[in-house]
Write a structure and sequence with these properties.
Chain lengths: 388, 232
C-alpha cells in the first residue's frame, strides 16, 4: 500500500507559498509552449482550410509563390478549354488572377506598417472560393477602382473601412465592402478587379497565376501531369492545399524559437521543482524516517515524493493552460515568407495542446522530482530520524 | 516454545565518528520475558537508544545475536525486516513524531495501510486504539491542535494499532510535564497488564521505575548495577 496521497496534497497545501511559486514557474513555461503552439495551430488551421482538393494553382515554372509568377493571357486561353476543368453556369471554373501587395498601417499603431496581399480577380474567382461571404457593403464592380477587404485585414489595419480610400497602382481605390473567408488566409487579402489592377500595375494582359477547379480527382491529376510535361507553356501546377501547407514554413522559425525558449524555461522549472522538493524532503526527514520505521518501503517513499512533485507540476500545468485560454480566438498576424505579405489567423487553444501542456508539466515534475525522491528513499531510517 | 520476547547475546555495537571509534554497546547479554515491562535506565549517551534501535531492527549490531519473539532478526533482509517490524513492533518516540498534516486517526491508521484491512476496519481499529489511550474524542484533530501529552497518547495508539507483541518506547516522557508523563506511563502499564504487551522502555525518568516490573541500568554501553540515585 502506498503512502496516502492526502499526505502529499496536504503537504503542498501547508507550504502554499513555495508550492504556488514553483507551480507558477511551471505555469509560465507551459504558457510559453502553449502560446507558441496555439499560434502554430491557428496558422495551420488558417492555411489548411484554404485548400479545395480539386483546386490547382498554376504558376510560371520555378515560381515559389503567386507574387513572383507571371502567366500570360495566351497560356490562360490554352488552359481554359481543358476538358478536365469544372463548369459553373456554363462557364469554366478557371480564374486568371494578379497578385501584389500594398502597405497599410495598424489601427492600434499607425507607425507599424506591413505588406498586405492584394488579389485582382474576376467574379468566377470569387465564386470558386468556398466559404467566402460578404460581411459588409458590396462587392467591387468590374472596371471601377473599388476594393473589398478581408475581415482579418479590416479588423487590424487602418484605412480599410467602407468609404476609406487606399492608394494602389496608379490611384486611390475605394473600399466598398468587407468579406469573410472563414479562417482561411483570404481573410488577410484585399480583392479588386483583375483587369484594372493588371493595367494599374503595368502587366498588360499577363497576370500572376491561374486558379483551376478540376472536375474530379482524376482530372486534377491529369492537368497536373499535362502541365508538367508540356514545356511550351512554361507553367507548372500545384494543388492549392499543398501550396498553402508550404506556407506553414513561415511559422517554423517562431515554432523553433518558442520550443527552444520553452525547453530552456523547462530546465529552469525542473530545477525549481527539484529545489522545492529537496527543501520539502529536508524538512520532512523525520517523517520519512517514521514512515520507514512503520514499514513503508523505500519504493513507497520514492513514489510518494515523485507523486508530490508530479502534483506540484500538474498544478503549474493547469495554471499555464488557464493562462493561455484567453488567447483562444484572438486575432494574430505573422509575416508570410512565401507571399511576402501578412497572414492573419486566430489563436486556437485545442484539447490536444492542453494535453501536451499537461504532459510537458508532468515531465518537468518527473525530472525535477526524481533526484530528491531518490535521495529520500535511499536514506537509512536512523539517518532520517536523526536529521529531523 | 518461546519464552523470551527479546534475547540479546553478546551484543557489541561500534560507530566510527571521524577518526574515533565509539563503542555504544559492549557485550550486552539479556533476556526479556514475554509480558515484561522492562525499563532500561541510564544517562545520555549510555547506549539505551542504540539498544532499542537494534531490537527494532533499524540498526545492526557489530557483533552478537538478537532474537525477537524467536526470530533471529540478523538474518532478515531490509524488506523482510520492514514487514516483520510492522507485524511485531510498536515504536513510541520521545518527540512523538506524528505526521503534522494528518489527523489523529489518520496518523493511527498509517501502519494499517500496510495490512489488507478494509477502510472500514482500519477506521474501527484506529478508533479502538484511540479509545484505549483516552482520545476517542480527538479523532479529527491535527497534531498541532493537541497537547504534548495527547500527542504522545496518539503516538502510543499508532504503536499499538497493529496489535504488536512488543512496544518499544524511547524516552516516552522526555518531552512531557509531570502530569502528562504519569498519564503516558499509566497507559503503557495498562497495555502491559491488561493487554499482555511486552514493553521495553528506555528512559532517564526516575518515575518510570514505579511502573516497570524490571529495571536495569546501562552506563557507557555496559549493563551495571542500578545506582541508588538514578541521575536525571
Amino acid at each position: 500500500m502506498p503512502v496516502p496521497i492526502s499526505y502529499n496534497i496536504r503537504n503542498l497545501r501547508v507550504r502554499k507559498t513555495t508550492t504556488l511559486m514553483t507551480a507558477l514557474g511551471v505555469a509560465l513555461t507551459v504558457a510559453v509552449l502553449l502560446g507558441i503552439g496555439t499560434l502554430v495551430e491557428g496558422l495551420r488551421a488558417s492555411l489548411q482550410s484554404s485548400g479545395n482538393p480539386l483546386h490547382l494553382i498554376v504558376m510560371r515554372q520555378g515560381s515559389t509563390s503567386e507574387l513572383v509568377s507571371i502567366v500570360s493571357k495566351e497560356s490562360f486561353d490554352v488552359l481554359k478549354f481543358d476538358d478536365g476543368i469544372a463548369q459553373h453556369d456554363g462557364e469554366p471554373m478557371i480564374s486568371h488572377e494578379v497578385l501584389s501587395v500594398v502597405n497599410l498601417p495598424l489601427r492600434s499603431d499607425p507607425t507599424s506598417v506591413a505588406n498586405i496581399s492584394v488579389r485582382g480577380l474576376q467574379q468566377i474567382g470569387i465564386t470558386m472560393r468556398d466559404g467566402v461571404a460578404l460581411q459588409e457593403g458590396r462587392w467591387f464592380e468590374p472596371g471601377k477602382r473599388e476594393m473589398v477587404v478581408g475581415a482579418g485585414v479590416h479588423r487590424i489595419r487602418d484605412g480599410t473601412s467602407i468609404g476609406d480610400r487606399i492608394y494602389f497602382g496608379r490611384d486611390d481605390w475605394e473600399v466598398v465592402g468587407v468579406f469573410s473567408a472563414g479562417s482561411s488566409p483570404f481573410n488577410s487579402e484585399i480583392w479588386l478587379d483583375a483587369n484594372l489592377a493588371g493595367s494599374d500595375l503595368g502587366r498588360g494582359s499577363a497576370r500572376s497565376c491561374i486558379l483551376v477547379r478540376a472536375v474530379d480527382e482524376a482530372a486534377a491529376t491529369a492537368i497536373l501531369n499535362r502541365l508538367g510535361d508540356d514545356q511550351r507553356l512554361g507553367l507548372e501546377a500545384e494543388r492549392e492545399s499543398e501550396y498553402y501547407a508550404k506556407q506553414m514554413s513561415s511559422a517554423e522559425p517562431v515554432r523553433y524559437l518558442g520550443v527552444f525558449v520553452a525547453i530552456i524555461m523547462a530546465i529552469g522549472s525542473c530545477f525549481a521543482a527539484m529545489n522545492t522538493m529537496f527543501a520539502a524532503i529536508a524538512n520532512r526527514s523525520r517523517e520519512i524516517g517514521v514512515l520507514r520505521l512503520l514499514g513503508f518501503s523505500r519504493f513507497s517513499i520514492l513514489t510518494s515524493f515523485m507523486l508530490e512533485s508530479l502534483l506540484l507540476s500538474l498544478l503549474g500545468g493547469v495554471l499555464g493552460c488557464i493562462l493561455v485560454l484567453p488567447l483562444n480566438g484572438l486575432q494574430g498576424r505573422i509575416g508570410n515568407f512565401v507571399t511576402f505579405a501578412e497572414t492573419t489567423f486566430q489563436f486556437r487553444v485545442t484539447i490536444d495542446y492542453i494535453l501536451i501542456g499537461l504532459a510537458f508539466a508532468a515531465t518537468m515534475g518527473v525530472f525535477g522530482g526524481f533526484l530528491p525522491a531518490r535521495m529520500a528513499a535511499r536514506k537509512e531510517v536512523l539517518q532520517s530520524l536523526g536529521d529531523g | 516454545m518461546i519464552d523470551a520476547a527479546v534475547s540479546l547475546r553478546s551484543i557489541h555495537k561500534e560507530y566510527r565518528r571521524a577518526d574515533f571509534l565509539v563503542v555504544a554497546l559492549d557485550d550486552i547479554t539479556i533476556d526479556i520475558p514475554i509480558g515484561e515491562f522492562f525499563c532500561l535506565m541510564g544517562p545520555s549517551g549510555s547506549g539505551k537508544s542504540t539498544l532499542l534501535h537494534l531490537v527494532a531492527g533499524i540498526d545492526r549490531p557489530t557483533k552478537g545475536q538478537i532474537r525477537v519473539l524467536g526470530d533471529d532478526i540478523g538474518e532478515l533482509n531490509e524488506s523482510e525486516l520492514a514487514g516483520w517490524r510492522s507485524e511485531n513492533i510498536g515504536y513510541v518516540f520521545q518527540t512523538f513524531n506524528l505526521i503534522p498534516v494528518l489527523t489523529a486517526w489518520e496518523n493511527v491508521e498509517l501502519p494499517l495501510l500496510l495490512t489488507s484491512l478494509s477502510k472500514k476496519d482500519r477506521l474501527r481499529r484506529a478508533r479502538t486504539a484511540l479509545e484505549i489511550v483516552g482520545l476517542a474524542d480527538r479523532l479529527e484533530h491535527l497534531p498541532k491542535q493537541l497537547s504534548g501529552g495527547q500527542e504522545q497518547r496518539v503516538a502510543i495508539a499508532r504503536a499499538l494499532v497493529t496489535d504488536p507483541s512488543i512496544i518499544l518506547a524511547d524516552e516516552p516522557t522526555g518531552e512531557l510535564d509531570a502530569g502528562s508523563a504519569d498519564d503516558v506511563l499509566a497507559i503503557l502499564s495498562t497495555l502491559n497488564k491488561q493487554h499482555g504487551k511486552t514493553i521495553l522502555m528506555v528512559t532517564h525518568d526516575p518515575r518510570a521505575q514505579q511502573y516497570a516490573r524490571t529495571s536495569r541500568y546501562l552506563d557507557k554501553g555496559r549493563m551495571t548495577e542500578m545506582p541508588h540515585a538514578v541521575p536525571a
